[in-house]
Amino acid sequence: MTRKLWIVGAATIVCSGLCAGTALAADQAAYEAACKAAESAQKAAAEARYEWNTIGPLMKKAGVAAEAGDYDRAVKLCDEARKHGEAALAQSEHEAEGWKLSVVR
Amino acid sequence: MKKILVTTLGVALVAGLAWATPEEDRLAFIDYHKKRFPNVAVEDYVNGVYAINPPAYQQWLQIEEFPPYELAMAEGKELFETPFANGKTYADCFPNGGIGIRQNYPYFDAETGQVKTIELEINECRERNGEKPFKYSKGKMAAISAYMAFTSRGEKLNVVIPDDPRALAAYEDGKEYYYSKRGQLNFSCADCHVASSGMMIRADMLSPALGHPTHFPVYRSKWDDMGTLHRRFGGCNKQVRATPLPAQSEEYRNLEYFLTYMSNGMEVNGPGARK
């Protein structure tokens, strides 16, 4: 019984290590997907005329990281760029009415 | 039912908060500045931040003894008077030969349904006469605009919003842009130049919004160069980490329409010198 438990435990540890390794190591495909999502968010913010000027530089840095083969960093930077795009779009939606509260009366 | 009623009332209240006629907006704008800076005369706001910062005002007076915009103004005069290849000049494109007219800009053009700025019309004039347009933010455009402003010094801003729903819509668009927060820092134009005017942002004092357009284009020490009002709009957008819109975009022209209307009745004193 004890031997069986040891085997199952060891197998679980090895498997989870391998699985985690697979999940963490980003590759070019993951970078391209993250980059595409960021570009889409950037485009939506720009169409609303609310784009932040932080998005372009983040994506540029992501491109440099990807070229150097550091896909983990590239994906992280693209994800951040996407979040900035989404936040800019949310800002445009909020300000569609929110601006009225600041008007000097 | 109760929820719907409360929501409807809330929406109506917020919508109502922003609604006022342009003239009501202007008077409220002046009143706000009077209360914020009770010791500053309204006509002094044409001097921008120097109206509310006495030590900087003294330094500025010394700068004005040898104005840094003088070379650009001389270049602008020469450009203005030099005939195009077809023999015509800028004077042929503008009322009163282009002299002493800055105070009437921007204006709403019923034919195109657009707000026209003086820089836009300078390029329209060039293109009508077979010349290539200038870039809008600096250089020769700023020089000609500076000369035209100089010929209008002392004239009072007289921006008109005609009885045309499109003109009012353009004014309202400009007003919305002015009060909307944007960029990663989530700041509107008004956050800095209305709510925080007179406060320090690092080593610089934030200038008051009233009178802002009277002194453009300006020679700015930071730029070491001349720039138009739209160059400054773009700079402000960048500072709050928003992507600036192109100079003379519809949004910026509408913004100029609103902002200049707020300073109606104040004297043109451009070109100016700023930090």
**Biggest interface, CB < 8 A:** A-B, 22 and 32 residues
SSE pattern of chain A:
HHHH
Compute the number of strand runs of chain A.
0
CATH class of the largest domain in chain B: Mainly Alpha
**Main pleated sheet of chain A:** none
Task: Give me the count of strands of chain B.
Answer: 7
Count of the domains of chain A = 1
Spatial order of the strands forming the largest sheet of chain B: 6-5-7
Overview of this structure, please?
Chain A has one domain (26-102). Chain A contains 4 helices and no strands. Chain A has helices at 2-24, 28-47, 55-67, 71-98. Chain A is elongated, with a radius of gyration of 21 Å. Chain B has 275 residues and is mainly α. Chain B has 2 domains: 22-65 and 161-274, Cytochrome Bc1 Complex, Chain D, domain 2, CATH 1.10.760.10; 70-150, Cytochrome c-like domain (Cytochrome Bc1 Complex, Chain D, domain 2, Orthogonal Bundle). Chain B contains 10 helices and 7 strands. Chain B has helices spanning 2-18, 22-36, 54-63, 70-81, 118-128, 139-150, 165-179, 189-195, 229-239, 250-262, and strands at residues 107-109, 114-116, 200-201, 204-205, 218-220, 225-227, 272-274. In chain B, helix 5 packs across helix 6 and helix 7 packs across helix 10 (250-262). The N and C termini of chain B lie far apart (57 Å). In chain B, 42% of the residues are buried. The model of chain B has no long low-confidence stretch (mean pLDDT 95). The A-B interface holds A 46, 49-56, 84, 87, 91, 95, 97-105 and B 11, 14-15, 17-18, 20, 25, 28-29, 32, 175-176, 179-184, 186, 188, 190-191, 194-195, 237-238, 241-245, 251.
